[in-house]
From TrEMBL:
Single GO MF descriptor: transaminase activity
Cofactor requirements of the protein: pyridoxal 5'-phosphate
Residues bearing PTM N6-(pyridoxal phosphate)lysine: K280
Name of the featured protein: Glutamate-1-semialdehyde 2,1-aminomutase
The organism of origin for this protein: Agromyces kandeliae
Cited NCBIfam families: hemL, PRK00062.1
GO biological process assignments: protoporphyrinogen IX biosynthetic process
């Protein structure tokens, strides 16, 4: 523990802090997965983070494989990013007016992701997808939206929708509080299933405004698109006059310098989405997200066009300083390092599980990865039903064995693992050393 970390350690334990938080905040958390419901136990209350490590309120350090749920590609508290934030903060926190740095961030993104000709900044991924959908509806004059089962695009009403009982039927609310009439504007289709998508377009094609898809799914664990799936879905949507919103909130600038689009660009599977959403890395850990795309569509946004969209904190100068600095620092060497650490951990975790006889599948999309437990999924999964077929109960003991050994994994089996370019040999070897005991815990787990 460094002096700085020691200064932020509290005299309260994680359990005491959680009890206090639960009295003041629903479930003690400001976003549900943080409550550890799917793995049990007490969430760690974090007080600082540096490089590949996070430190909890008890002063305990963990190697971090959550990375703030994605943004920290450079590692936590990168000195140049922190300096840029401090410099911006010293000049004022929020102006509610245009700033030069906003244009710089838009230009950086447009230079790297060709389908993005114009871009608007917002504060969260949820806002980005919500605004992209309104824009697609405003542009096409149509109301229906297609999404894929198991894809997450934030918590706006129309996206919290679950598949109805048959293909090509309207969705049901995916949360209490979502009106059935709103959910009914969404059609939910199995991922990677072009035939199902064709069926939906055959029945409702002239009413569909857009298909929204994670460029590579990573919110049900990692499930990459089958080769050519993104391309074929764009072709199909366009044949019916619908738009495609490629959600790169999670993958954008994490899996490559040009996101998932950049991985498939220049291959047989290349595709051109109409709109793209970003978040996480574009804010470098601060609240910045964005929607961008074809100029002709983007120019339908107010004040140029009739589609309203706005935000007091949109393009906040302190947040944008973190995003611009992060993107500038994210060079080829950073992505090579992310790929290297990711590949190494995939192999080490897989070897540890195999050594204990735990059947498993390894799911990979760029440097994002996750594991599926059980014989039934040893060959991997291509959709949500496939992911649900795993022995998910093996994950909680695995997770806790890692946590006890000082490694912080995502507290749910249905999440991607995130590496950073700051994961050096020491951090990686701490993870590798923890694996045998965790694999043994997974091996001896019993179904509930
Ligand atoms: N889209 C995707 C693909 C995401 O992974 C997320 C968040 O995890 C969102 C949208 C929502 O972003 P936010 O949590 O910033 O609202």
């Amino acid at each position: 523990m460094t002096t700085a970390d020691a200064n932020t350690a509290t005299t309260a334990t994680n359990a005491e802090l959680f009890a206090r938080a639960q009295a003041a905040i629903p479930g003690g958390v400001n976003s549900p997965v943080r409550a550890f419901r799917s793995v049990g136990g007490t969430p760690r209350f974090l007080v600082s983070a540096r490089g590949p490590y996070v430190t909890d309120a008890e002063g305990r350090e963990y190697v971090d494989l959550v990375a703030g749920w994605g943004p920290a590609i450079l590692g936590h508290a990168n000195p140049e990013v922190i300096a840029a934030v401090q410099d911006a903060a010293s000049r004022g926190l929020s102006f509610g007016a245009s700033t030069p740095v906003e244009t710089e961030l838009a230009e950086l993104i447009e230079q790297r992701v060709a389908p993005v000709e114009k871009l608007r900044l917002v504060s969260t991924g949820t806002e980005a997808t919500m605004s992209a959908i309104r824009l697609a509806r405003g542009f096409t004059g149509r109301d229906l939206l297609v999404k894929f089962a198991g894809h997450y695009h934030g918590h706006s009403d129309g996206l919290l929708a679950e598949a109805g009982s048959g293909l090509a039927t309207f969705a049901l609310p995916g949360s209490a509080g979502v009106p059935a009439d709103v959910a009914a504007l969404t059609l939910v289709v199995p991922y990677n299933d072009l035939d199902a998508l064709r069926a939906v377009f055959a029945e409702h094609g002239d009413r569909i405004a857009a298909v929204i898809t994670e460029a590579a799914a990573a919110n049900m664990g990692v499930v990459p698109p089958l080769p050519g799936f993104n391309r074929d879905l764009v072709d199909l949507a366009h044949a019916h006059g619908a738009l495609v919103i490629s959600d790169e909130v999670l993958t954008g600038f994490r899996v490559s310098k040009a996101g998932w689009w950049g991985i498939e660009a220049g291959t047989d599977a290349a595709y051109t989405p109409d709109l793209v959403t970003f978040g996480k890395v574009v804010g470098g850990g601060m609240p910045v997200a964005a929607l961008g795309g074809r100029a002709e569509i983007m120019e339908r946004l107010a004040p140029l066009g009739p589609v309203y969209q706005a935000g007091t904190l949109s393009g906040n100068p302190v947040a944008v300083a973190a995003g611009v600095t992060t993107l500038r620092l994210a060079d080829d060497a950073v992505y090579a390092k992310l790929d290297e650490v990711s590949g190494l951990l995939q192999r080490e975790v897989s070897a540890a599980l195999s050594a204990e006889g735990v059947a498993h599948g390894v799911q990979v999309a760029g440097n994002l990865f996750s594991f599926l437990f059980g014989e039934a999924v040893a060959d991997g999964a291509h959709d949500y039903a496939g992911v649900l077929a795993q022995e998910s109960w093996r994950y909680a003991p695995f997770f806790h064995a890692m946590l006890d050994a000082g490694v912080s994994l995502p507290p749910s089996v249905f999440e991607a693992w995130f590496v950073t370019a700051a994961h050096d040999e020491d951090a990686v070897s701490r993870i590798v050393d923890a694996l045998p005991a965790a694999a043994r815990a997974a091996a001896s787990a019993r179904p509930p």
